[in-house]
Every structure is written in structure tokens, then in C-alpha cells.
Amino acid sequence: MAACWNHFTKFVTKEGEKRARCNACDVTYTMETTSGSTTNLNNHLKTCLKRPRGNTSNLKQLELAFVNVSQETTDLSTWVFDKDAIRKALVRMIIVDELPFKIVEGEGFKHFLSIACPRFSLPSRWTIRRDCLDLFNSMKSVMKNCFEKDISRVCLTTDTWTSLQRISYMVLTAHWVDDEWRLQKRIINFCPISAHRGESISQAIEKCLRDWGIERVFTITVDNASANSVAIEYLRKKLNHRNASVANGKFIHMRCVAHILNLIVQYGIKDVSVSVDRVRGAVRYIRASPSRLTKFNQRVKEEKIDSKAQLCLDVPTRWNSTYMMLKVAEKYERAFESYVRDDHNFFLDLTAGDGVPTFDDWEIVRRVIKVLEPFYHLTLKVSGSLHVTSHSLFEVLTDVHCLFDGWQNCGDLDIISMTSKMRDKYNKYWGEGNKINMLVYLAVIFDPRCKMSFLDFGVNLLFPNVANDIMKMIDKELHCLFNEYSSNARRIQLFEGRSSSSTSFVV
Q1: Domain ranges in the chain?
Q2: Domain 154-255, what architecture?
Q3: For 180-207, how does the pLDDT look when each residue is reduced to its tens digit (9 = 90+)?
Q4: Cβ–Cβ < 8 Å for 124, 173
Q5: Which of 137, 207, 291, 340 has the maximal Cβ count within 10 Å?
């Protein structure tokens, strides 16, 4: 007998028709189907609002769950309550999402977990803190073992800055290629330092390298502060004493290309800073309150400006954020002009500062955007941390050189003046080919799309008067680097021949 008959009663109508009545809502269905099927009755049970659901203690699949194995399919698997696994997942969530430890004491989170997993007992924030530190130490131990045994060379990037509380900080990031030829990145130190002096920076880096067991450093990428040059020179000597550097540390000091691009652009837009400041003041005023934003958005609709971009305020020391601010604000030029007529305080506030943006200011802004846009994309190209960028550095040099050549012949005096100053700053850092880190050139040779032919073309483009000398120097350094790695490889092969253990060697 079908299970649905526990919820239906059979009866016969006056006309002699056999029907079934729902015990909960009195709805009736015919029983005289061709196949004798009860599908119509079962379908009703699924939607009947008056039928009591009863308790779920007799369900047989309480611990079955659908698990996604791909976007197209699912897999049915069992689920076992594991408090340790749930606790580890909670710790991971707090770390990955940068949540405070006290989230476990929040009423909303407690209620959510009581519904989602009532059997799990929430630990205190102090316990969660210990769990996070335990996980960090565990992962650090794994990474230290990896640095000491499996990784041949590590490249480092570092930066320093001062917080609003006047505390100096330093961050140190390690980059390397693993055994499966994937680029890896880990922040291995984030710490306060006594001052932005070369001695303080070098000692902090040395202490971190010793703590992580990192011996073999290939390059250290830093900005152009003089303190960094002092720090790199100190570390070069230390690594040379331990025979842990390549080519006696000749290539270890890598200047940050993104930072140099930042200096070039900042130097170029100094002459138009008044126009930029006026636009910045207008954006700051509008963003200062929700009511102003609402009124401004109304002007955008009235002017029929087809853009959904939100006004953004820049960080004056970061030109890429200035570019984004100007790019968005320029689209709303008509809305700003309309707004100044409706809000007298807008006019008074800006007049007390740098002034209200004029027609000439917006024209200058358009020129600035035109100049900054290619630099913005070039900066994105070389500042990526999830893909290799070393082979792109020389290409950036040639691209910037060609941009300057094109702008000098554009006929726009404002752009010519702006880019001439930028070119002066460019020449300060990249004007002499023999002073550029040789790895910038060597990386091009190992790019199968470029090789020696593109390098020769680029060097002749950038340094036509000394191109032959630079190419000879590159060829010499390439052979020296090859010989050093070849010698190291032979020593390792000899060691493997005498030992039962094997050593992994990755260039």
C-alpha cells in the first residue's frame, strides 16, 4: 500500500466515482486514473499547507549532503561532525577575512552558528587567538623547511612607511618559483623599525632572513630612497661572506620600476597642480555629505550624463589614484557646472581654497588624463605580484621612450611642456644604459617572444650612441651568469653521485 494513503481517505461519490480526500484540508482527487498512479496525491502532499509536518527524528539521511564537485555537477556525500575541522575552518575564516577575534562573542554570530551547527561549542576569543598563532607557527615551520631544502633562490621586495601614529613600519615579501614552475609570494615580515635609516632597515631584513632560514637571495627590490642603497650594500656584503649571492651580489639591488614611474609622473604634473587641486576640492566637497551627493546625482540625471562611475578622492602622493579621480570627475564636468549654480556654499567653500574648476581647468585635466593613461596601464603591468614581471621591465622602458617621442611632436604646447619635464626625470634613472641592472636586459633574452633580437633593437632605440658597448656588456654578463650556474650544477651532480640522497636544484 502506498505511503500517501496514510494522509488520504477513500470514498465513493453519489455518482459512483472513486475519490480520495486529504485528511488535512479536505481537497479531493480522483482515484480512477488509467495506470492506478498516486502521483497526483503525492504532489498534493508536498504543497498542502494544512498538513502537519511532524518531527524529523525518523529521517534516515540527516548526515547526507550535496557537495559541489564542479559547476555542472554535484555529488552526494556523507557529512560527519568534526569539531576540530570546524574550529580550524573558523580560524581560517578569521585570518582570511581579517575579522576581529571577538567575532566569536557576537550575539548574531552565536545565533547563526546555533542554527547552522548547534552541536559545535564556540571557543572564546582568547582561545581563537591562540589557535591563530598556532596555525601561523605551523605554517611558518612548513615554509622554513621549504626555504631551507626545496627553494634555490628567493627574490625579496620591501617597503617602509610611517603611520599616523608616527611609527615606522617595514614589510618584507618573498617571491620564488616552485618545483611546478608557479610563481609564489609570501609576506614573511611586517614589523616596526626604529627609523628609516639604512642601518635599521638592513638589520631588520637580516634578522628576518635568519629567522626564516633564507640563505640564497637573488634580488632585493626597493624604492629609490638613499637609506635603501645603504641597506642593500650592507646585505650584499653579508651574503657574499656566506657565498649565498649570485655574481657576488652584482645584481642584487633592483630599483622598483613602479616607484620610478610614480616619480616621473609626479614631476610632470607639478605645473598643472592648481587645476588638479581645484578638481580635487570640488570632489571632496561633494563627497563630504550624503545630501550633497544626492543633489549632485540629480544634476547628473538632469544633464543626461551616461555614467555610473562614483566620484573618488585621491591620495595626492599616489598619482594612479589622482588619475582615477580625474578620469571620473571629467565625465561629470557639466554636473559640476550645474551644481555650482544651485549651491552657493559650494562656490564659497572652493573660493576660500584653490577655487572652482574653470573651463580651462577641465581642458588641462583632459590633457593630464591623456598623458597619465598609458602610465597607469604600464604601472599595472609591472606591479603585478601573481605573475612574472622581470621580462616586462625593458619593454616598459622602450614604451615610455616612444611615448615621449610621440608627445614631443603632438603640437600641443601644454602636453609638450609636461612631458619634457617627465623625460628629464626618466633620463635621471634610465638615461644611461650601463647603470641599469643587467637583469633587466637578461630577462628579455629568456623571453621566447623577444630573445636577443628584440633586445638589440631596444638597446639601439634607447641608447643609439653606445648600443654596441652595452650589447657587449650584456653578452659578457650572460656568459658569466651561465658559467656560474653551470659550475654550481656540476658540483651538485658530483655531490649526488657520492651520496644516496638527492638534491633539488632549480635555477
Answers
A1: 3-46, 83-149, 154-255, 272-390+410-429, 432-507
A2: 2-Layer Sandwich (3.30)
A3: 888 999 999 999 988 888 889 999 999 9
A4: no
A5: 340
